[in-house]
Design brief:
Layout (H helix, E strand, L loop, with lengths): L8 E5 L4 H12 L3 E6 L2 H9 L5 E5 L5 H15 L4 E4 L14 H28 L3 E6 L12 H21 L4 E8 L5 H14 L3 H9 L10 H12 L10 E4 L6
Parallel strand pairs: 1-2, 1-4, 2-3, 4-5, 5-6, 6-7
The chain binds nicotinamide-adenine-dinucleotide.
């Protein structure tokens, strides 16, 4: 590790497990001070214990604008202005469209899309003062193509990509880049939930359910959280300063 991000303050949402935890570990190993944001303290404390740089924990539901505002204020008091924002918190509930009621629809939009909006609003003035501000939205291949039975999640992730592209243009004259990373099926707790769901609804074994998800990836494997963290590392680097408004698929060729 190079300590390339020493002196920068990175805030990662949904940092208690999975992709968010992998990103937080990478940023910390590169010397950034890291704020871990999530709804519950305990998983964040476990991740914090594995980090090597200065770490702050703040709790908030990203869908709640007021909680987000308080959490960002606390992070700023402890670690200074945020210069890297990783909007990673997300949830993926599945249902056929005819059983997608307005509550499920609203939940998916609130967490995945409005959550990204709330955190970006809360960080923007900080990012504009940074030497190299970075907004990295963890979207999904579900923001680039459709999948049956996750219309609300997919609509929200398409929205995240629209927000990414528009804000990138708006901020292009500044020092802030805005990009989305679009993982395919990735080996995390969220994936375990998807497997459990498929098994419950179809009676398949775990191996058969897993094979069904693996099949979507032309490389025939699941993405690992560290692969997503590596893309974040590059987007945060000076080498990527001309890269903005992009959706980077990490999905073995599933989306072209
Ligand atoms: P995960 O469920 O393992 O972790 C998500 C984290 O976000 C958890 O710590 C959870 O508590 C937190 N979170 C959820 N709702 C929140 C809220 N309202 N406020 C604050 N924190 C909240 O999921 P993951 O697989 O690590 O997913 C991370 C991101 O990557 C998500 O945005 C997800 O949509 C996206 N993604 C995941 C996959 C996959 O296959 N795992 C594929 C594509 C995209």
């Amino acid at each position: 590790m190079s300590g390339a991000f020493t002196g920068r303050h990175a805030l990662v949402t949904g940092a208690g497990q999975g992709i968010g935890a992998a990103i937080a570990r990478m940023l910390s190993a590169e010397g950034a001070s890291v704020t871990l944001l999530g709804r519950r303290r305990e998983p964040l404390e476990m991740v914090a214990a594995s980090l090597t740089s200065a770490t702050t924990i703040v709790t908030a539901d990203v869908a709640d604008e007021h909680q987000v505002s308080l959490a960002f204020s606390a992070a700023r008091v402890q670690r200074g202005a945020v210069s890297i924002l990783v909007n990673n918190a997300g949830q993926a509930e599945s249902a056929p469209f005819r059983r997608t009621n307005s509550e499920l629809w609203s939940r998916m939009l609130a967490v995945n899309l409005t959550g990204t909006f709330n955190c970006t609003q809360a960080a923007l003035s900080d990012l504009l003062t940074a030497r190299a501000g970075r907004i990295i939205n963890i979207a999904s291949t579900a923001g680039q193509r459709g999948y049956a039975y996750v219309s609300a999640y997919s609509a929200a992730k398409h929205g995240v990509i629209g927000l990414t592209r528009s804000l990138a243009l708006e901020l292009a004259p500044s020092n802030v880049t805005v990009n989305a990373i679009c993982p395919g099926f990735t080996e995390t707790e969220m994936l375990q939930e998807s497997l459990a769901n498929i098994m419950a609804k179809t009676g398949r074994t775990e191996a058969a359910a897993r094979a069904e998800l693996v099949k979507t990836n032309p490389q025939g494997r699941l993405v690992q959280p560290d692969e997503v963290a590596e893309a974040v590392r590059w987007l945060c680097s000076d080498a990527a300063r001309s890269v903005t408004g992009q959706c980077i698929s990490i999905a073995g060729g599933e989306v072209m």
